[in-house]
Amino acid sequence: MEIAVGSKPGARSRGNVDAHVAEVIAPGVVLLAVAEGFGSVRGQAAPLVAALAVRDALRHRVRPDGRDARAALLSAFASANARVFAHSGSHDDFVASGSSISAALIVGDRAHIAHVGGTRAYLSRDGSLMALTTDDELGGEDWVSAWTSVPTEALTGPMLTRTLGTQATLDATVTNVRLMHGDALVLATGGFHKAITDEEISYALRTTDSSESVTQRLLEVGNMRGSAFGGTVIVGRALTDAAAPVDAGPSFHIRTAALALTMLVIASLIAAAVFHIFLQP
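Below the sequence we write its predicted structure tokens.
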């Protein structure tokens, strides 16, 4: 898999910070993850703590054959959630830190996607972009209907309904998809996908020949949105070698030669018979 990461710090007033992981965590196993959130855990940004905690937990649980990948992801997210919640000073009446996170655990040709919050994971195939995650947020009409007592002018944006580290227990959403040659996985923080449209991501994937080119183009598009733009994107392209012709082995060649010799003998007998018939007085 060809992997590239693009990142740009956001405006300070936004209050959120990003973190990411793009590593081989076991033989034949790759972890891609983006995290975005607020607060800190023992002096480290909560998104970084969350992403590294997921990575470390998976290193101890994931199998090279991909068995129990879903259980490993659920356990890793639960472990990271418990760490952030307990060590950030959060409790039932106060949230000190939290993080959205989307992770892709890639084993062979299978990508297992775990998600919570407002980050996203996409699959690009044959020129089409499909979301593999759903934002855990209230916004627009949902926001208004849920908070009818809040003045309209105070409704400045969506509210996340589930993030890592903001509750004592957490069950992440996990799905999986089989990767085909030419597919691309795209993981993006909320700050990124709110500034870059799905059409712009899809166009960059169709018109560039490398993951690095895609990330650079998308960052350029984001910079055109203004100085407030900031976010992280990971692009991983699935590349497989074309299947080599299968060598049928020596037995196949022997059978082929024997068949050819048999056909030659039959043809010779037929020719001799025809010659004998026509030359008889």
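Residues 249-281 form one domain.
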